[in-house]
Amino acid sequence: MTDIIITQTAPVLVAIDISKARDEVLIAIADKKRCRRLTVLNQLDDFNRLITSLACYGRPVRVAFEATGNYHRALAYHLAAAGFELKLVSSVALARTREALHNSWDKNDPKDAQVILHMMEIGNEQFYHDPLVRGTNDIQERSKTHDIVSKSKTELWHRVVAPSCGTEF
């Protein structure tokens, strides 16, 4: 009789706290107790170094991050092009989990990377869809433009109408 052996390799979990100039990266491997911490500048050379170091593990890689303005898009694009699985962490869920874990609202980038890693471990993450790849970029841009125009219209309305509606004594 033939023995069937199925080996399933646990993915390398990568939590990234993204900011304007640099990203804090926390890498967790299933076999090891300690996590590896990196700081990656928002530059192509650093993106390539990160991708090379993640590919060296020889395991599937799952990356999670919080979408921060547009700063996450370049790194996410390069990670997806390298074949890594991308996940998104909700900003609200991240804030609430950080509050619950650390009993504090205080935040910093390394702490946020730890919280993102914790959220990955418990499965509290969402799918990430690159708007350029999926073809939804135009819809997002129109939505942002509509939001800006609506806010400007309301602000202008309050400037024009509000002073004339004041009560006179």
In short:
This is IS110-family mobile element-associated protein. With 169 residues, the protein is α/β, with parallel strands linked by helices.
Approximate shape: elongated
CATH architectural group of the largest domain:
2-Layer Sandwich
Q: What percent of residues adopt helix (DSSP H or I)?
A: 40-55%
Could you say which structural class the secondary elements and strand pairing correspond to?
alpha/beta
Calculate the terminal CA-CA distance, rounded to whole Å.
98 Å
Largest beta-sheet characterization: 6 strands, mixed
Number of strands: 6
Overall pLDDT score: 83
The CATH class of the largest domain is Alpha Beta
Radius of gyration: 21 Å
**Strand residue content:** 15-25%
Number of helices: 6
Q: Identify low-pLDDT runs.
A: none
Order of helices and strands: EEEHEHEHHEHH
The CATH superfamily of the largest domain is ATPase, nucleotide binding domain
Oligomer: single chain
Task: Describe the strand arrangement of the main beta sheet, using strand numbers.
Answer: 3-2-1-4-5-6
* The number of domains: 2
Protein name: IS110-family mobile element-associated protein
InterPro entries: Transp_IS110-like_N (IPR002525), Transpos_IS110 (IPR047650)
GO molecular function: DNA binding; transposase activity
Domain Transposase IS110-like N-terminal: 14-121
